[in-house]
Design a protein that fits this description.
Elements lengths: L9 E6 L2 H14 L5 H7 L6 E5 L4 E4 L5 E5 L8 E2 L1 H6 L6 E4 L1 H7 L5 E2 L5 H9 L8 E6 L7 E5 L3 H6 L5 E8 L3 H4 L28 H6 L10 H8 L5 H15 L7 E2 H9 L20 H10 L3 E6 L2 E7 L4 H4 L18 E10 L2 H4 L11 E2 L1 H14 L9 E3 L2 H7 L11 E3 H11 L1 E9 L5 E7 L5 E8 L2 E7 L8 H12 L3 E5 L10 E6 L12 H7 L7 E3 L6
Helix pairs in contact: 10-11
């Protein structure tokens, strides 16, 4: 409905008077009877409502901050629908359907939600609540993210959906995050899971986001996916984490506007605390702090008379903030500087990821994309396969197996080994065959000394750095090859190692016809593998720069 800029062209606009505001409020609260005056004040603070008539005959009601909160598609006042801005403040205002990030990409491009894209858990939940009716208003959100990102009306009833075997259009999207109506507001993102291209799950404290377990259940261990960094984060908690979390909470309270109160703990954590996270740490992990939960942190600040909490509609909210408190007045963002206790390196490799590119035959069928250059993470590949299985009815009563259709049989199997359509095949076999048909890529994200992030994206499997102690002309040396793949300049690396190790280093070309990429070799004088320890242990130098052990290959020709 708001896909084109012309759709939000303004025909006329004016502020509603007192009587009109009261009538609009009564109509709105009559339609959404579960809401109270407190929720109304959260949506329209200061009792200020601006009515705008658009070129597409739609009426939009905006608050004092200029955010569109409610829209009436017909302009007759009979259909008052909340926007993404409204749902970010009160997510449970209307019932919701859950889908996955892969489907959200299409919805953010203006597509409708098909029944095949609704998660199985969401379908069971809808059925338990009595289903849905045709033309009923529902919202869409991602499993693991509490904020809806789209709203629309149901294309059919639940009974009809069951008759159609949960296939075909389910919800006709009227408004979604990133459309032209959303751009008329402040463009504030509800939480860190909202991206321009898709909507993703978020990791939060269990008191902040009840969908955390659903998100953790989505984690899949895939071929080539590396967990070294995650393991490192679990064992290296910043020594000042408690102080950092408290500082972010104080800064967030100082930033909250009076018109935003009352604010749920979910909104406070995602929209106020997360943006204040120092760059040197990976996440504000409350579970690793003394607070454990966001509720306990804010209760401590309430005991200091900094904030007042109150339960609104059975949910604890930030109700009032004492901005004149000396702690808030004197607050300054915490400066970690070059603190070595931080979990994120100031300079070095921050992440290594394996990616896959789909052949043209799979792009539109399995991955449901038009852009053939798009790359997918192992997790996205697995999700695409699961969506294909669900949408084509290939699930098997035995979870370890699945049915094959004509497309899978012809593209994943040879002529002599191809199973017949409808035959059950082990799921792991299909998954492995799919990965074998994809083109492997890799990406390396490197952070420089100024904190700037640069990404290296290359085709092919990432080969490890090779460290080889050996003898040449009777002298012990250590050869280093393969460093270019990780963004190292051989000359700069040679100079660095010469100063760090206090030994002679030089760069030479690697001979042979196989060296098609013109890679070079760094040669160090001496054996820096077998006879060196501590800061002079060569593999440790690369580990300090963020390269996991699995990408450091030692070919030891001197070890006896």
């Amino acid at each position: 409905m708001f896909k084109k800029a012309h759709d939000v062209g303004v025909s006329k606009t004016h502020s509603l008077g007192g009587k009109d505001v009261k009538k609009f409020k009564n109509d709105f609260l009559k339609k959404y009877q579960q809401l109270q005056d407190e929720e109304w004040s959260l949506l329209f603070p200061q009792k200020s409502v601006t009515l705008t008539k658009l070129n597409n005959k739609c009426y939009v009601y905006s608050n004092v901050d200029g955010d569109p909160i409610v829209f009436d598609p017909s302009g007759h006042g009979d259909s008052l629908i909340p926007t993404v801005y409204a749902l970010s403040k009160i997510p449970a205002m209307i019932p919701f359907l859950e889908t996955n990030p892969l489907v959200s990409k299409n919805i953010l491009k203006g597509a409708d939600l098909f029944l095949q894209g609704i998660s199985e858990a969401s379908i069971q939940s809808v059925q338990a609540r009595g289903g849905f009716l045709k033309d009923q208003i529902w919202s869409i959100k991602i499993e693991g993210n509490p904020i809806p990102f789209a709203v629309g009306k149901m294309a059919l009833s639940f009974a009809q959906a069951v008759e159609n075997q949960m296939a075909g259009k389910g919800l006709l999207a009227l408004h979604y995050f990133g459309d032209h109506l959303w751009h008329t507001g402040s463009r504030a993102r509800p939480n860190q899971g909202f991206h321009d291209s898709d909507i993703r799950p978020i990791e939060m404290d269990e008191d902040v986001d009840s969908a955390e377990q659903a998100f953790e259940a989505m984690q899949v261990t895939c071929p080539g996916e590396h967990v070294e960094e995650k393991e490192e984060d679990e064992h290296h908690v910043h020594p000042k984490l408690d102080e950092i979390i408290r500082s972010c909470a104080l800064g967030g309270l100082k930033d909250v506007k009076r018109s935003e109160l009352p604010m749920t703990l979910t909104s406070f954590y995602t929209s106020k605390m997360i943006p204040l996270k120092p760059e040197q740490i990976v996440s504000l992990d409350l579970k690793n702090s003394k607070y454990k939960k966001i509720k306990r942190l804010l209760e401590e600040l309430e005991a200091e008379d900094i904030v007042a909490l109150k339960t609104v509609r059975k949910e604890l909210c930030v109700f009032d903030i004492h901005k004149d408190h000396s702690t808030l007045a004197e607050w300054k963002a915490i400066d970690l500087g070059n603190d070595s206790g931080s979990t994120e390196r100031k300079a070095g490799i921050s992440s290594i990821q394996t990616l896959y590119k789909s052949p043209p035959s799979f792009s539109a069928t399995i991955f449901n994309v038009d852009d053939r250059s798009q790359l997918f993470s192992p997790k996205e590949v697995d999700q695409a396969l699961l969506c294909y299985i669900e949408s084509h009815g290939l699930a098997h009563r035995d979870n370890s197996e699945m049915l094959v259709d004509e497309f899978l049989a012809s593209y994943l199997f040879g002529k002599k080994e191809a199973p017949s359509p409808g035959q059950a095949v082990p799921y792991d076999d299909i998954r492995q065959r799919l990965y074998s048909k994809l083109q492997e890529w890799h990406s390396i994200e490197r952070v420089d000394s100024d904190g700037n992030r640069n990404t290296i994206l290359r085709r092919g499997k990432l080969q490890p750095i090779q460290l080889m102690p050996l003898k040449r002309k009777g002298r012990e040396i250590t050869s280093i090859t393969g460093m270019e793949s990780f963004g190292y300049n051989p000359k700069y690396l040679s100079d660095f190692l010469q100063k760090r190790m206090k030994t002679a280093c030089f760069v030479t070309d690697i001979p042979g016809k196989n060296n098609v990429n013109n890679e070079q070799e760094v040669v160090m004088s001496g054996d820096w593998i077998n006879k060196r320890q501590g800061k002079f242990f060569l593999p440790g130098v690369f580990k300090e720069d963020g390269i996991p052990s699995s990408y450091i290959k030692i070919i030891n020709k001197l070890k006896k």
